[in-house]
Amino acid sequence: MKKTIKFVSIALILLLLATGCSGNTNSANADETQKPEDQTQQNNAGKVDNEENQQEGVKEESTDVDPKEEIDLSLKPNEAGQIMVLMYHNVGEEEAEWVRTPENFKKDLKTLYEKGYRPISLADFVNNNINVGAGLTPVVLTFDDGNQNNFNIIEKDGEKIVDPNSVVGILEEFNKEYPDFPLKATFFVFGENPFRQPELLEYKLNYLLEKGFDIGNHTLGHNDMSKVTDPNKIQEFIGKQAAFLEKLVPGYKVNTYALSYGARPKDKALYPYLQKGEFEGKSYENIAVLNVGWDPSVSPIDKAFDPYAIHRVRASETKVDGVGMYDWMAVFDKNPERRFISDGNPDIVTVPKNLEEKVDKDKLGDRELYIYGE
User: Fold this and answer.
1) Which phi and psi (to 5°) does residue 70 adopt?
2) Within this chain, do residues 181 and 103 fall inside the same structural domain, yes or no?
3) 374 domain-assigned
């Protein structure tokens, strides 16, 4: 009897366990049967979100504005206008034909700033890579000879600092006060002792590049090319100087050249050697050759623009022949239509209708030409 009861009890327990497992299985199956519905809902939700995003994208695309419509024509942009490439030499205690006092140089910078001029690099000028704000005018700053007053290092409290009365010191201080007046200038140096502190030569050249300035070629010995008849000599004077400088600043190409005395060879057949050549296995190729100054340059998109004969303006207040920077600023004030005025968009070249014929479309590159007015 006891055995029978025990057998029945075991059978009941097994039956209950089997029933419980069957219930769990049904529950799991129920969950699984709901998943496709959940997934469908999620897919539908994703589809709705995607459609909404697409609709928003269509809306955004449909509201795109032609960038030309954002140009403020009331500023009378004229990117076929003239640009001053200023020619400085020295900063010193007494004003002279080729010397500005520190005070007058600071005045020059302040005047340029207040009249809406902003520095760009010589390379950007030549390559028509002009990017200044709308209504502003680019200006190129150049300094010939590489004298110590251009870049002087002094000791103060046991530390080497840039002389605040040197060109570099004045430019850096002005940039601190007016950050939208960038550190862009080219220093044309000659010989093997630029800036006349030989123990700091390599340091100075690399310092200039790190700050955003450029170094240009002024020949090996400030050579007067009007006296040269041998093409090998021209290549030596330019090529040897370029090689010397590039050895001190690895990776940098010295590819701009300011003519000493503004002089060219008398034989025009020698002109190509001012642009490129080779000396002792080292080649050089200049993207720009600069004259001694007397008037502003035409725009780099102008049909008359020649990167191998760039005009410069004397950075002085002289009234002799009206060739000083203040003379030309006065001309632009009286004749604003002659001045380069930026449209603020580096990808568009904006020119008044009456100057359209001056534009060399081959010089536009990837930029769009925008002609406006009657």
Assistant:
1) -90, -5
2) yes
3) no
